[in-house]
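Protocol step 4 of 5: obtain the predicted structure for the target chain.
Materials: sequence only (see below). No template structures provided, no constraints applied. The aim of this step is simply to have a reference model before the mutagenesis design in step 5. Sequence pasted as it appears in the construct record:
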Amino acid sequence: MKRSPRLLIVTPEVTYLPEGSSILARYLSAKAGGLADVSAMLIRELFEMGVDIHVAIPDYKKIYSKKIGKFAKLYEEQLTIYMEHLCEERIHLARDRIFYHKDNVYSTYGYDNLKVSLVFQREVINNIIFSVKPDLVHCNDWMTGIIPAFLKKNRIPSLFTIHNIYTVLSTLSEIEDNGIDAAEFWQNFYFERIPINYEETRNNNPVDLLTTGIFASHFINTVSPTFLREVVEGYHPIIRYPVRQEIRNKYYAGCAVGILNAPDASFDPSIDSAIAKNYSIRNFVSGKRENKIFLQKKLGLIVDENAPLFFWPSRLDPVQKGCQLLADILYNVVSKYWEDNLQIVFVADGPFFDVFKNIVDFHGFHNRVSVCSFNEDLSRLAFAASDFILMPSSFEPCGLPQMIAPKYGSIPVAHDTGGLHDTIEHLDPYNNTGNGFLFNYFDSQGLFWAIDEAMRFFKLPKNIKNANIRRIMKQAMERFNHKECAKRYIELYEKMLQRPF
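Step 4 output (structure tokens):
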């Protein structure tokens, strides 16, 4: 009997792994951002659908041990057994001392991240692929960009998913010094300039890891259809030319699609254990009120159940997330709606963290604006407590907060770009359409206009406002789910297996 195709997913981070895939699956959690959530979601859905799925991740021993706690000794004992019977396992840990003592997936030192990436890919290329014998490999972002080049040489189809446009440069000599025999497939790399020969190229012609993944893979996907179109059509000057050009090449060859991500199923106010009061569509008014009061007391804000509360859920990055737009108008927004007790809560880290801290200190806004470092539980509480979230991104490959927030009855205020365009329609409360407030021009006045729109909605009669929120919550639960996302990936996998190189 013909066996089902075997899929290997290669990811540098994952939030959780499905029960049944390994005794230790619940403990193997290493997260830096949205890639971990999306990887976990896809792996779980495919596993539950019965797909012959295997996963390659680094063995972040210190990170995993923190979750295991008193079971750390069991972890060591079981891991030894697992590595001896690797083919019987679906979870394949890339083992090297470089992973063992890391506290976080990514370092603030760029070279450390490159080193970890090369060692991870070495283990996947030299050991895991040969052990698993996959029919198809799904790689994610620049930290896996060399693997499609190896797979192309061995005629194994690969899907390369672009979650973000960040890339890193290396050299053939550096790649080989880390144990990858790149001389066997160096022609499949994307170099900064056209290579003349191997010897000339080895030390002096940088390899672009993200573009290599795009260039060498069988198919690619971005994590929203609109972002793919924007890249192909020349939007967002920050995107490096090689990345854009290779995405265009794949697109016009019929080998590029946009597949919208979906948030984890645990983002549901009726079951979320991190919030103060669980609620559903039926009782969201009282549920959100209790969560708002709880958050206000917790953060030292004015305790007012009628205060409009805006939540900033994304990292404070001025290159992508548009936080500088809010910094420009923060004083004016708070002042304009002073009598309404407008409040803004940040649960995020990033370069502009201190900028907002300083604005709050200078103006004495401590009981109206709270700037907090990222914390998963606090972030979930803020979704439940807030009336609106702020996402003025200059570009957005996908975004998850704008899909999570409506499930909690919090309405997005966002720039009309990329994944935000795919998931938000401007709200018309009198015709019961739309689920957020979009501004078209990326500037602070555009954001201010959208906040004004949100405040106009906030002050509508309760029967109109609550009817719209109830509809938005219901539609978000129905639309933003894992099964639809996994179905799209399965369709793409099948297409790849049917289409020859």
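Step 4 remarks: The first strand starts at residue 6 and ends at 10. Residues 9 and 55 are 5 Å apart (CA to CA).
Proceed to step 5.
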